[in-house]
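User: Second chain of the day. Same drill as before.
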Amino acid sequence: MLKNVKLFSLLISLLVVAAGCQANTDSGKNSSGSDGSSSSSPSPSEQAAANEVDLSKKYTIKMFTWGPKDLDKDDAIVKHLNEKFNIDLKVERVLSLEYTKNLEVRIASGDMPDIFRYNMNTPGTYRHLYEDGYLMNFAEYADKYKLDGLKAYMSIPEMDEFKEGDGMYQLPSSPGKEISPILIRQDWLDQLGLEAPKSWDELQNHLQLIKDKKLGGDKTVGLVSSFGFFSGIGVSSVGWTGSYEWGKLDGEWTYEKAMPDYKGFLTYWKDMYANGLLDREIFTNNESQEHAKFTSGQAAAILTAPNRVAVLEKTITDSDKNAKISIINPWLEGQKGPLYGTLLPYTSPVVAIKKDKDEDFLARVALLMDYMHTEEGVKILNFGMEGVHYNMKDGQMVRTEQYDRDIIPALGNLIAGFTDYSLAKQDVSEELKKLYADVDTNAVSPPLTPLSYGDAATHLLNIEQKQRDWVVNFITGKNDVEKDWDAYIKEMNNAGLEKLTQSIRENN
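Assistant: Same format as last time:
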């Protein structure tokens, strides 16, 4: 299991430094080109010998990310960063399910943000930008400008997998153990005299009773998911074979979604779908549409993220004073027991674009990223600033209105996702803390990451798309799990699965 970044104490006062000066805002384009850009950017080693970042000129820095809500226009943390580094930080957000497609369009059009994250399931995004010389070498800038925050973060042993031979061009963020709790209408369970489900089979039975009694009306839905089927349900229930891509079969790495036991996972969700217990629109709805089914009282349960729990609970109880929500804990038992899926503690790497940017702009980006990886910066991004977002009273953090505006429970500020945001996991309800305790015992991370795939990673997109097409057909009943299994395996191999499997067995 990978190590977590050291947790920092809240009791240490946060240092707020106001810096910067008034200047015209600049996007960082090199001034030598006719459109404000040049064909290449200078290396840090070619700059002046002084290891200081010039803050005299104001720059606009654009970030692109995903998350549950936009930053407020008066966000105090962004204001703090703007003043400290004399920048105008512009942060654009989309929903997680829409992020990769949006990012691909931006890259293809040349309209790239200055700093952004990429999904590790699409390693080609990083690889192409790296090979084409678009990315900042964080290690080079950390050395030149003595950026100790970046140096310390890059020295963590688990960072080695993300490094290149000549430096480090991607900084994985650190969410800690990511979990996706299932919220369920406790008032409906109480009405039917039911205890919380302890297995996936019990969940199915409970949801069937709720649907039969039409507790959510004529169109009662059993389970919905904030992140759809593949990014939500598909990666959370590792008690089923197939929630992760790779596992050992007879001692050899094997694609789990090609193992015979995967049929159990497909059959379960096919039955859930056929009986109306799995939302019939789960493959097409976005996060907002899935949330609406739960908060409106139509759905009995939702698989979501910790940082969505508080908002979902508030929304549903505001509209129905009698509604009562609980979190299913301990985790449901599947084929392999009560195993809970968790993402890697280091994931969703951050990159910065250097091509056609001037040196002062790149140094400012590096300085910002360095601060976001210092003890002070991490605490501010996770919890906000003392005296602004909270006050300390008798050793306890007392939140202000600005806290609720700028900080997302279990996530921190929206841009905390660009660094270590594992501290924010402390900022959850007691019920979620109990689930985290269970997760510490039963959660497992993927044994391999796309970074382990080598050159065979080029097959990933074809394999993933083909696999998703088949899953949709299996679950909706268009294809039969037993009768069409061999055809599924054949098409997966044609999409590159055999080559990918061979490469993984050779390199791991």
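The longest helix spans residues 460-476.

User: Great, on to the next one.
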